[in-house]
Structure to design on (183 residues):
């Protein structure tokens, strides 16, 4: 009598498996979208940091005085972010991407805060160096997170979507609409 009970239980668990599997895929798709959104906000933060400083730099230099140090404000950020980029990659591998990305955001924001309170060009250069130490991590770890989250099968479609976006937003929107209709 125990054999029929076992065989009756087996089809039920087999029938329940596809339902639970499709239910688990739905939150995964939602979490991927959330992660990509968070990475996009992180990249926006880094881009705004560069754009705002580039736009306001002539005014900042005129108020602080020190035209001879103008290029160092930009070079300090670029040099420090370039130097720490491979370090952030290794730290992300060792300690996990989430904590390393959070640390990069904190360092970037500390550098931005220091830049806001700069009262001399030398201090502004120092603050931009600190900001670059965080900014290097923002770019590297954000791209690594995207590579970890997007499966290889859909990576080609993602690259196909990103290529037209560098040409024009309209072609990017068309590409997105075409890929969304196929899903």
């Amino acid at each position: 009598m125990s054999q029929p009970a076992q065989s009756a239980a087996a089809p039920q668990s087999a029938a329940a498996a596809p339902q639970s599997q499709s239910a688990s895929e739905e939150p995964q798709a939602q979490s991927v979208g959330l992660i990509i959104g968070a990475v996009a906000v992180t990249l926006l933060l880094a881009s705004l940091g560069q754009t705002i400083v580039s736009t306001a730099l002539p005014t900042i230099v005129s108020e602080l005085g020190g035209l001879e140090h103008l290029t160092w404000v930009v070079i300090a950020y670029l040099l420090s972010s370039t130097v720490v980029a491979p370090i952030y990659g290794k730290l992300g591998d060792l300690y996990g991407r989430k904590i390393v990305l959070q640390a990069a955001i904190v360092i970037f924001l500390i550098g931005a805060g220091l830049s806001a309170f700069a009262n001399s060009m030398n201090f502004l250069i120092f603050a931009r160096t600190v900001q670059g130490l965080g900014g290097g991590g923002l770019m590297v770890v954000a791209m690594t997170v995207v590579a970890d989250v997007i499966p290889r099968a859909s990576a080609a479609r993602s690259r196909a979507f990103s290529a037209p976006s560098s040409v024009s937003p309209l072609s990017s929107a068309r590409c997105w609409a075409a890929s969304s209709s196929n899903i």
